[in-house]
Amino acid sequence: MPENKGLEGVVVANSKISSIIGSQLTYGGYEIDDLAENALFEEVVYLLWNDKLPTEQELEAFNKELFDLMSLDDNIYKHFELYPLDKVHPMSAVRTGLSLTAHFDENAEDKSLEASQQKAVRILAQLPALVAAFARLRNGKDVVKPKEGLTYAANFLYMLNGEESTDTEIEAMNKVLVLHADHELNASTFTARVCVGTESDVYSGVTAAIGALKGPLHGGANEQVMAMLKDIGTLDKTDSYIQKKFENKEKIMGMGHRVYKEGDPRAKYLKDMSKKLTDESGNSELFDISKRIAEIVKEEKGLLPNVDFFSATVYHSMGIESDLFTPIFAISRASGWTAHILEQYADNRLIRPRAEYIGATDRKYEPIENR
Ligand SMILES: CC(=O)SCCNC(=O)CCNC(=O)[C@H](O)C(C)(C)COP(=O)(O)OP(=O)(O)OC[C@H]1O[C@@H](n2cnc3c(N)ncnc32)[C@H](O)[C@@H]1OP(=O)(O)O
Ligand SMILES: O=C([O-])CC(=O)C(=O)O
What we know:
Strand order of the largest sheet: 1-2-3
Radius of gyration: 21 Å
CATH topology of the largest domain: Citrate Synthase, domain 1
Mean pLDDT: 97
Bound molecules: acetyl coenzyme *A, oxaloacetate ion
Shape: globular
Keywords: Transferase, Tricarboxylic acid cycle
Oligomer: single chain
GO molecular function: citrate synthase activity
Helix content: 55-70%
Number of domains: 2
Protein name: Citrate synthase
Family: Belongs to the citrate synthase family.
Structural class: mainly alpha
CATH architecture of the largest domain: Orthogonal Bundle
Number of helices: 16
Strand content: under 5%
CATH class of the largest domain: Mainly Alpha
Distance between the termini: 32 Å
Largest sheet: 3 strands, antiparallel
Order of helices and strands: EEEHHHHHHHHHHHHHHHH
């Protein structure tokens, strides 16, 4: 068995984008607490891509750039007619849809720095439109185009719900997007870097990353948390449900982390938001169940909630369908993926580790009739 199964603890890149030390997370040197409490998601994206926060004029120009690219090509809306929307997971739809947007970018194969930066803007602008369009069309509703003058978070909610959201909802969505934007070499970001390390293009890197985020051990855990909460149903059933999971050696979704052993600094914001939003939406028992799960898992396994645990009830309280939780994570993390892709291009070397061979040896080919 390799010493670092799953590459645990192995440092494979230098990066200026985000840092994790103990339970401290920073983006470009800014504490996550500072950004979560004060920043617009657009400012954070600008920071990840430019290693500086934007001035007012820079932010205004950036918002215009994003807005101008936010509407999808009509052919992308039309492609949703090609398959049974109600049978396809939104993360699969986003994986295909994002890849498809490349075909309507005449510079798709241009890997110059300028074209790659432009692709990052385009991807970040189009992902919320893609998720919202899929979600509306599968529910028999018309697509809603973005509205000028709204923030990124507000525009996503507008395209999803077809009406402007309340300040509380917009603030919550903005904070969720800020908290999920980047996280060093998590599995999907690493995937993106491996992909473009072959000198492949930005769309390929992001499409590969979406595939990696989908898995339940990574971004897909938030959807599974909601499924677990629904399965449990009432607070009194929580203890026995979790004990049964332990007996069956099943993992509790949203708990534990490869890097954070003393707690995920993002989780406390999501917990506070979950408490507030579940109270306001009449879902407080879901918060109570979550809190009890976290207590049991901490007592029995010493594991703490990660970013996916309380985000489930935040989204649910905002009326968002549970299979859209991971696509929302993807919208936010696209900012980090593209920042890492650009960083990888800037100082690239093919990423190609080795495996220790443990299979059979000295075999000889047998003609098929003799096997
Ligand atoms: C955005 C994100 O990606 S955050 C992570 C989202 N994923 C989840 O929430 C899924 C649940 N959590 C997990 O599967 C893990 O904690 C991970 C994948 C996040 C990190 O895992 P790793 O560092 O690789 O730990 P690993 O999976 O090797 O587990 C180590 C031990 O802790 C146990 N363990 C880890 N997480 C959990 C959990 N959530 N529930 C129960 N037991 C757990 C494992 O069963 C294992 O026990 P063992 O040594 O007795 O076999
Ligand atoms: O860093 C990780 O391994 C997973 C994670 O929390 C993230 O991607 O936000």
